[in-house]
Amino acid sequence: MNRELIRQQLTGSDPFVIRASDGKQYIAPHSEFILIGRHNFVIEDARGLLDIIDPLHIVSIRPGGRRKTQKAG
Q: C-alpha 20: how far from its chain's center?
């Protein structure tokens, strides 16, 4: 993905799941935990750890909000 397409996908306040070309998934609690540089894409997780990815290796970005389930009864 290119930087502009990544920026367009990062809207809203829900968590995001970013999937890389090697199959790894990265969870960002909010778009403010993501930095898009000229040559790098940096994700800070909820524990404060950083993952640095080349934007060319990002294959998908999707909202990662928890789904609500209904109780049986």
A: 10
